[in-house]
Structures
1.
Amino acid sequence: MAKTPQTQNRRWIVTAVPYLWMVIFFLVPFFIVLKISFSNSEIAQPPYSPVFDFIVDGWDEMLDKLASLTTDNYLRLIQDSIYSSSYLSSLWIAGSSTVMMLFIAYPIAYGMARAPKSWRPTLVMMVILPFWTSFLIRVYAWIAILSEEGLLNSALTWLGVIDEPIQILSTNTAVYIGILYSYLPFMVLPLYSNLEKMDDSLIEAAKDLGCTQIGAFWRVTFPLSLPGVIAGCFLVFIPAVGEFVIPDLLGGSDTIMIGKTMWEEFFNNRDWPAASGVAIALLIILMIPIMIFQTNEARQQEAGR
Amino acid sequence: MKRLSLFNVVSLTIGFTFLYLPIVLLVIYSFNAGRSVAVWGGWSTKWYGSVFENQQLLDAAWITLKVGVLSASVATILGTMAAIALARHGRFHGRTLFSAMVYAPLVMPEVITGLSLLLLFVALNIDRGFWTIVLSHITFTMCFVAVVVQSRLSSFDRSIEEAALDLGCTPFMTFFRITLPIILPAVISAWMLAFTLSLDDLVIASFTTGPGATTLPMKIYSDVRLGVKPEINAICSLMVAVVTIAVIIASVLTKHQEVERERAERLAANAP
């Protein structure tokens, strides 16, 4: 069908509206964060200077303001050890919980993919359902379980495993449990959707050619499921690095994660430029994992067509 | 024929127990007559009563609900448009940037999204409150909508759309008569996803809110920081119940639609 100019126009709108929205509300804000990360903290409204005003400011004024921008916030990020240890411990906690998650989630996803076909939609539903109930509620539920007079300690005391309550809440252990619990569906679902599509005859063939059950798994199933593994790992790792709610509610005062540091910088110290600097540095750290994730997703999408 | 081994059964059982036990315990203890979170003091529904007498909680719940419905609806429209652009419009100018902007918020730490949106609102001198939360929620949920709808779009037979175009439908009509009915289950579940993500959000709302706009997660969070209270168990159990019922209804509806569609397809295939 010959496309009239009018229909071409309409097609253009379908792309333009969400495009423009994302540019205004997603892309532009990052440049504002970047700008404010070079600003000075002030006790004023807004609490930073300089404030650019493109309509009122003259050219000279603009240059003056540009000159007053500072890299102090970034110097502080390097010099103050609270920041570097926050970044390192965030990366460590997120990384090690991602690895643990893979070991927990893979058997679940594998079991789901091998379940009878008629069960599978229900199983998928059952994995998604807790994800639909509030994140905050799920973290909150663990407070009652892990606290000193909580259910886990009562159960362990009753069973005679421990004599007196052990402290789990307000430790890093609780943070690990929180992350493993909250992000489990993000790992299970990509793995499942990958494993489910896998052609069984490949495993049959491997076995016919003399592979053991475990050998066939390591040589055929696992390598083929790698796109799912990558998607799952990054879906867990990237948000976990910047996690705030879990370290704040389940962790103790010695649990330092970058999301929490940034939150405190912003809400408690009201130092917006410092918080922006922390955010930009976090974004730079996450840039590479985010790009790997996106390339993997795009490749999957193309392959799915 | 695949068969579940003992290992599969055990890992599924442990996995689902891990997923559900905390929520089940939370719901059970919301009926605890005692104040303690661990000592059982008999059955009672008194905490549910005190939830409904707590005006602050009810106000927060009402605001959350309004934000959720508004932002999910706009996000569904924008996200569906984005999905169509990505799945159907081939290689347009700036596509790489567009798909990056659609996928990045899926993994973007909420503290960054929240901070950047707040600074945008401050820079634009917009009064913060109800509407800034709505705008922020539209922005981060539309990406989830786009991903859900796009995966449905890329798995369906495009020749039906082409046939409609050949038979003289405008692209606009083709969308409403052919494409939309087929992708409707995905659009509905995308709306639900956007809605629950909005109900759920604490971090982005905390950054972008202003005076007078406290959402339920913000209220729960400030209460939780003061200690575990049975009222919170009750309100959380109510939220779990609402979401569970909504998800079950949605899955029954989409199942029903799938069955109808399959029947229609069979009829069409058997037609002479």
Note: The beta strands of chain A are 40-41, 48-49.
2.
Amino acid sequence: MAENDALPTAEQLQDLLLESPGFTEFLLGLTAISASRLSGNSSMLCAITVERETGPVTVASSSEEARSLDERQYAFDNGPCLTALRQQHTVLIPDLQADEKWDWYAQAISDEGIQTILAVPIPTDNGARSALNCYSTHVAAFGPETVAAVEEHAASLSRILRLAMRVHAAEPYPEHLRSALRSRAVVDSAVSLIMVHNRCSRDTAVELLQLASRSSNRRLHDIAQDILDNSSDVPAVTEDGKP
Amino acid sequence: MINDAASEGPQPAFGADQRQLAAAQFQSANVTLPELWTYYYGIGGNADELALDAYLNGMVELPPLQVNLLHAALKEITADGL
């Protein structure tokens, strides 16, 4: 174990939360703290995975390698840290090459030179699940003492992680969906106006709008916005009722 | 400008050609089907995502208005991204 083996203080963790602009940055800081605290003589890669009910999975890692190790488990939708996360118990693989249960994973990550994997759940609430994953390039790098230390460390992160999830709530709707909903509201209002103006059906009104957009070579949404802003005329049907 | 609605715009081809054009545009547009559908919905489209998929793959026909809106969506998406 490292010299610096005191648990991070609540104050340190709170500072990290206050200083992080987003949830990803916060997790990144947390993995850096974990890696520097837990790394002993041999270097250890750390990653934290958070799976939320309403948002995408977030992975933060103390290094690029650790990130890729975590993300590859998502490609298979299985792996030691996903098992720790979903079943909420510690998974220790002392010798990856010799482990029959995980030999498919060993093959998948054979290029990384990883020998030992330890995945420990971090207790969270509200349908979110999280795990701290440690990787080492040495066989049997994590003895019972290290496992206990990592478990203790993971437990100490629980409170700040739950706080962070409250502070940085998951984005329920991605930006392009929100912009489509905003656009649709504008288009629907303009369509209603055209319908009243022409006493026509919705389809005819949409067609008028679409024809106006095509003939002026402007975006349909922009035409609709102009109509609502009263900066352009409401499209009208022709005498015979055709758009 | 708006009152010119009935005047000549570049009219898309009809039927199967129109579908092939849409499918080809979708292929080269580098957008996913959910992104295309979301955009199409945003400009007033009413067909669901499955129907768009089926249409682009030649499985079903869409009403002409929905086809036009799909073309408009593809054109606007390819014009300058989402």
Note: Chain A touches chain B at residues 176-177, 179-184, 187-188, 191, 203, 206-217, 219-221, 223, 226-227, 232-236, 238, 242-243 (CB under 8 Å).
